[in-house]
Amino acid sequence: MDLGLSKRKFLITGGSSGLGLAAARSLVAEGADVAICGRSEERIEQALDSLRSDGQDVVGFRADVTDPGAFGQLREELSSRWDGVLDGLVNNAGEHTSGKFEETTDTQWYDDFDLKVMAILRGVREMLPLLRASSAPAVLNVLSVFAKYQYKNSMPSSMFRSAGLSATNALARDLADDGIRVNAALIGFIHSDQWVRAAGTDDAQAVQEYEDNRAQQLGIPLGRAGTPEEFGDVAAFLLSPRASYLTGTALNVDGGLSPVI
Ligand SMILES: NC(=O)c1ccc[n+]([C@@H]2O[C@H](COP(=O)([O-])OP(=O)(O)OC[C@H]3O[C@@H](n4cnc5c(N)ncnc54)[C@H](OP(=O)(O)O)[C@@H]3O)[C@@H](O)[C@H]2O)c1
Fold first, then answer.
1. Smallest Cα–Cα separation from 16: which of 118, 93, 119, 123?
2. CA of residue 158 to ligand 1 center, whole Å
3. Ligand 1 atom at minimum distance from 94 CA
């Protein structure tokens, strides 16, 4: 199936690693132009080296999505680069933050709110003029299955993922008149750099063992962590004109982990 993504233009926050990079790969493979952003210049350069493809525009920007001015700057850069048009925004930048409730601090709560809620709202608001200029605009919020149900010691992440889910639903309604579709991917447990860091080693076999154990502990019905490619392809579809009747929806990408559909 041709997804109709050739020459379309996308911004992926946190596209320098893990799931964001996988989404970038899938989009580039479909002929799209892709901009990624992240905080580490080194990670961005490594990602760009792996993404560059003849005839397509692949570009990286250093940006912290919790900085209130970041999306305004990105909009200016992309507007002049891509003639004022953006076909899709992937709000993916993030990290898992959770712990024992009574040990959480106000600073952790505010920081996580900035990262998981304000970054989505600012990202969409600042990119609106560019998205409105697209013939098939789409937003994809990368959240977690824990947006729909909580587990012990899961805050603040799980609470703000629920807010991200509400924002997806509300934005889908608010932006439908502009033809902008807004959907969410709810991630269960997918291999990425954050799990390599959690495993505490770069050794591929040790990381695999760590992920197999975690998949078993979580009770994932398919019995394993997902692969970044499995996410990337779902993202490309949701962002494509072939998903033209999907908006305000959240797709579990979780190997069956979530008891809530
Ligand atoms: N993988 C999973 O199993 C899983 C499960 C549930 C939810 N998720 C969500 O999926 C998204 C991607 O996670 P991942 O697993 O791919 O993690 P990852 O491999 O650690 O990648 C995270 C990406 O986000 C960027 N980033 C983090 N904070 C940022 C900030 N403030 N501003 C700009 N960029 C930032 C990172 O680059 P820099 O550090 O250089 O900025 C990196 O490119 C996250 O929102 C995560 O919470 C993942």
1. 93
2. 15
3. 45
Instruction: Write the residue with the smallest CA distance to atom 45 of ligand 1.
Output: 94
> How close is the Cα of 102 to the center of ligand 1, in Å?
25
> What is the position in ligand 1's atom list of the atom closest to the CA of 115?
31
51 C-alpha vs ligand 1 centroid, how far in Å?
A: 18
Q: What is the pLDDT of residues 107-161, one digit of tens each?
A: 999 999 999 999 999 999 999 999 999 999 999 999 999 999 999 999 999 999 9
What confidence score (pLDDT) does residue 53 get?
85
Cα distances (Å, whole numbers) of residue 128 to 71, 88, 97, 179, 260: 11, 10, 29, 11, 32
Residue 94 near ligand 1, beta carbon < 6 Å: yes
Distance set, CA 146 to CA 130, 252, 260 (Å): 31, 10, 10
- pLDDT (tens digit, 9 = 90+) per residue, 3-29? 999 999 999 999 999 999 999 999 999
DSSP string, 163-228: HHHHHHHHHHHHHGGGT-EEEEEEE--B--HHHHHHHT---HHHHHHHHHHHHHHHT-TT-SPBPH
Atom of ligand 1 nearest to the CA of 194: 20
Can you give the residue ranges of every domain in the chain? 9-190+226-253
In the reported structure, the alpha carbon of residue 38 is separated from the centroid of ligand 1 by a whole-number distance in angstroms of 9
| 82: DSSP letter | T
Confidence of residue 173 (pLDDT cuts 50, 70, 90): very high
Q: Ligand 1: does its nearest atom lie under 6 Å from the Cβ of 159? A: no
Fold of 9-190+226-253: Rossmann fold (3.40.50)
